[in-house]
Amino acid sequence: MNLAERKQLFRDTLAFNNKGCVPSLSNVWSYKIYDTGYTLKEALFDYDIMEKVVRKFHERYHFDTYFDLGTRNPMKISQAFGSFHHRIDEEADAIIIDDYSYMQADEYAEYTKDPQAFNWTKGLPRMNPDLTYGQLQATIGAMLEFFAFNGKMQTIMVQEYNTPVLYNAVQQVPLESIIMGIRGIRDLSLDMRRRKADVKALSDKMFENLLAGAKAIAAGPSEDRYVFDAESVILASTIMSRSQFDEFYAPYLKQLMDTVIDSGKLYYIFCENSLQNFWEFFQDFRKGSVLINLELDDIRDIRKKLPNVALGGGMPSMLLGNGTAEECVDYAKKLIDDMGDGFVFSTDKMLSYKNDARPETLKAVMDLVRKD
Amino acid sequence: MEFNPNDKLDYSYPEGFKKAASSLVFLPEEQREAMLGLFLTLLTQL
User: Fold this and answer.
1) pTM for the whole structure
2) How many CB pairs under 8 A join A and B?
3) Which residues of B touch A184 (CB under 8 A)?
4) Which residue among A11, A100, A152, B44 is buried most deeply as judged by most CB within 10 Å?
5) Is A137's Cβ below 8 Å from some Cβ in B?
């Protein structure tokens, strides 16, 4: 299957017109490092090794597209910066990220007035008060090296493996940035109750650039190398009530999605945790425009609730990690039959840990959906 | 302007920001402030 055919298969699947041919999407992250025989430290700090990881993993399993091409954890940038918030715990097979905040509760107005000025005068020095010119140069250099590696991996997948890149532009709702470091999980939870106007004012400010980006995507061409024109990861919803989602999240996501979709472009949603609390948000999007990748939800239940959007996920990591190859194949066959058209085969969570799957079980289920 | 790599950044704004941007000599001059600005927007990833 060539690149154009693979892309068309996804487009047909979003329109529920894939006629039983099921595309696959790799939601595999750090697991692929273990699967190919490396450690986190070996792969995350050496892009040559990470390239080998991605190549070996693809040559073994042949997914039709990949969420991660070895660029999820830019540890080399954090290392150059001297960050204390990311660290590798080899014993636990985990990358630990602290919940931290570099903005205080009474600083919303200052941040909103000029984010760049705030980040320079307060955000950056709070994260590393002793940063030197040499460290800054090294950090920016590491950032450029990371961008180059990302581009290289995309080109390898497209040109050498006829495998399209999952998405072009990232469109994160402002709250996703606020929860990541600006205020952190704990503080933002309180702010949404005690400082509603502040949170909304900052969200509105941050949204100006986001909406401009969405309009640029809408006005531009769909590039050949990407399956989806835009992507949003929904994570902050995990700390929100339904009413908070409606107030702080839904209006922004709706505008971003409408702007992109109304121009005929395709939108990818990765819903971390569960969308049970806000599934109605998606019920009016036009068939043929959206794929939602699920994690903990019952995918068959969501299919009944949302017959208008394609769904991805469903293959239990627990089974891939603990079941036999035969049990996994039986489960995958039934899942594919039950879901029918409008379904993208993927796992029910991000595969991040050593025991999230085993080579023999993953190979067995991927052979079911492999297209040469 | 010359920079000692071991000197700490000047966190005044915009003077310190501009000075730090001009230290990114491996980038074309017209890209330095934009790249430093991009770095600041990615702070939450660090």
Assistant:
1) 0.94
2) 84
3) none
4) B44
5) yes
